[in-house]
Amino acid sequence: MPTKPVEHAVKIRPANPGDMEILGGFGALLVAMHHELDARRFIEAAKSTPLRYGQFLKSQVTRPEVIVIVAEEDGALVGYAYAELQGFDYMSLRGPAGVIHDLFVDPARRREGVGRLLLEAAMAGLKSLGAERFVLSTAYRNETARSLFAAMGFRPTMIEMTREADQADG
Predict the structure, then answer these.
(1) 50, 27 in Cβ contact below 8 A?
(2) Residue 85: exposed, middle, or buried by beta-carbon count in 10 A (0-12, 13-18, 19+)?
(3) Which of 18, 142, 165, 166 has a CA between 20 and 30 Å from the CA of residue 60?
């Protein structure tokens, strides 16, 4: 007999200033995860990263074109998304779009649908601001995120390539 779907207890809401300490910690974990994937490409999290990341997100929440949302369950934050409506970006050869900068879920809560809920809410918020297209980037080796994004209808459009300046040719 099939099991009945359980209603998700996770609620998505706008971030507020009281969330910034936890979001700063999440941001530091995001930095550390990327550094682990490619230490030569991504910066390493420093002792000051949680505070600085939290301060940065706090500076963004009042901007009308920015969305910072959190996933909360039983009073505890389990993830966040940071997105922004942008105009033309000639360096990216891109027209106006909703750009999803960060999507992070607490490692203990991954693969439970929290990332999908955050991504859906971020896209809905960007659409309400006028976005007709959504773009995001993910680390090449982050196969879990790439799988989620593909399942949500994102298609690969660019590949960033990195090389060290002192690397020998060939």
Answers:
(1) yes
(2) buried
(3) 142
Q: Whose CA is closest to 52, among 33, 31, 37, 36?
A: 31
Amino acid at 154: F
Residue ranges per structural domain of the chain: 12-151
3-state secondary structure of 66: strand
- In angstroms, the CA 4 to CA 114 distance is 19
- Look up residue 41 and give its amino acid: R
CA-based nearest residue to 138, from 112, 163, 101: 101
- What are the tokens at 106? 């607490």
Range 12-151: architecture per CATH? 3-Layer(aba) Sandwich (3.40)
Compute the C-alpha angle 39/44/47, nearest 5°.
160
* Low-confidence residues in the chain, pLDDT < 50: 1, 3-6
**DSSP secondary structure letters along 72-104:** EETTEEEEEEEEEEE--BTTTTB-SEEEEEEEE
Nearest by Cα to 57 from 9, 18, 97, 6: 18
pTM exceeds 0.85: yes
pLDDT score at 170: 66
- DSSP letter (8 states) at residue 29: H
Two structure tokens written together for 101 = 């900068």
User: Helix axis angle, 20-37 relative to 49-60, nearest 10°?
Assistant: 120
